[in-house]
Design brief:
With 333 residues, the chain is of the alpha+beta class. The chain has three domains: 45 residues, Winged helix-like DNA-binding domain superfamily/Winged helix DNA-binding domain (Arc Repressor Mutant, subunit A); 205 residues, Bira Bifunctional Protein, Domain 2 (BirA Bifunctional Protein, domain 2, 2-Layer Sandwich); 48 residues, SH3 type barrels (Roll). The chain is built from eleven helices and 14 strands. Strands 3-4-5-9-8-7-6 form a seven-stranded mixed sheet, with helices on both faces. α4 packs across α10. The chain is globular.
């Protein structure tokens, strides 16, 4: 089952964006004729695009274009590209032009008891978050922003290692497109050629000792532009720069094809089914690293992860185990 695009403040701009998405030059007159509005009204709409990170180019006497175009998401295209099992597991597919945070929206649905097996994509988030409260930069029509709601029995213990397993699912999805240099960084990041390409954020609702709801948020960089790219405060990778030409709708469907079956089977399989795959992609395996949590710092050698997804750090000949939360990991300089 799928839902059509939900109305938003960006809804009035969708028609003109659809026309400009081809990246070609369009005159104000032709845009007005296609939209059934005046050239002055077209101009007013075009002036609003900058606030969404869209760079409009204008050439006197010729018109306007979005250089490079836009590959807009379409719920029906994503749904049609899904495999049979993923389609059977999906209860609702929602696409929004603009939202505060897809995770926040899915958490509200989980609270209302209507969020299980629901997927939400957004073209833009105004307050999207990464791990440790960081803002996730998301200019309109760039990258993949999605959240999935899923209910589990068995409490939070049954979810140990889930964020790492989701990382494996993302790596496998990217592998279908032969994206080079994909690695995983404990506990929530997908790297590409030594830089962050995507992040995972898990949030919980309900009874943490029995039946609980989980919202899995994913943000993946692709087609970042101009000032939005400059706002990112850490080394980052962009899928379109590394492996250009991957259709966004097909990428979105491929991610779901890896993720939805994982969520369905996770209570029986757990992280043990993904540990070896994660270890094979470990960005820092065998390297000296630094862990930090608040004012505490640990230094040692990354020695893989446990069956429960804990990072194993070798320190002075002893193995120490660290679970997620507010711990950050980086390589020693």
């Amino acid at each position: 089952m799928q839902d059509s695009t939900v109305k938003s403040p960006l809804a009035q701009l969708r028609p003109v964006l659809s026309l400009l998405a081809d990246g070609r030059m369009h005159s104000g007159e032709s845009l007005g004729a296609a939209l059934g509005i005046s050239r002055a009204a077209v101009w007013k709409q075009l002036q609003k695009l900058g606030q969404y990170g869209l760079v409009l180019e204008s050439v006197k006497g010729r018109g306007y274009c979005l250089r490079g175009g836009l590959d807009l998401l379409a719920a029906e295209k994503i749904h049609a590209a899904l495999g049979d099992r993923s389609r059977s597991l999906l209860r609702s597919l929602i696409l929004r032009d603009e939202v505060d945070s897809t995770n926040a929206q899915l958490l509200a649905l989980m609270e209302a008891g209507t969020g299980h097996a629901v997927v939400m994509f957004a073209e833009h988030q105004s307050t999207g978050r990464g791990r440790r409260g960081r803002h996730w930069v998301s200019p309109f029509g760039a990258g993949i922003l999605l959240s999935v709601g899923w209910e589990f029995s068995g409490g939070v213990q049954s979810l140990e290692g889930l964020s790492l397993s989701v990382g494996v699912a993302l790596a496998r999805a990217l592998g279908r497109f032969e994206v080079p240099g994909v690695r995983l960084k404990w506990p929530n990041d997908i790297w590409c050629r030594g830089r962050k390409l995507a992040g995972v954020l898990l949030e919980l609702k309900g009874d943490l000792t029995d039946r609980c709801g989980v919202v899995i948020g994913i943000g993946l960089n692709s087609g970042l532009r101009g000032q939005a790219a400059c706002a990112i405060d850490q080394p980052w990778a962009d899928l379109q720069q590394v492996c250009p030409g991957i259709p966004r709708n097909l990428l979105a469907a491929t991610i779901l094809d890896e993720l939805l079956p994982l969520l369905k089977d996770y209570p029986e399989q757990g992280f043990r089914a993904y540990r070896d795959a994660w270890a094979a992609l470990d960005q820092f395996a065998g390297q000296p690293v630094v862990l930090q949590s608040g004012t505490e710092t640990w230094r040692g050698t990354a020695a893989g992860v446990s069956d429960k997804g804990a990072l194993i750090l070798e320190m002075a000949g002893e193995l120490k185990y660290f679970h997620g939360g507010e711990i950050s990991l980086r390589g020693q300089v």
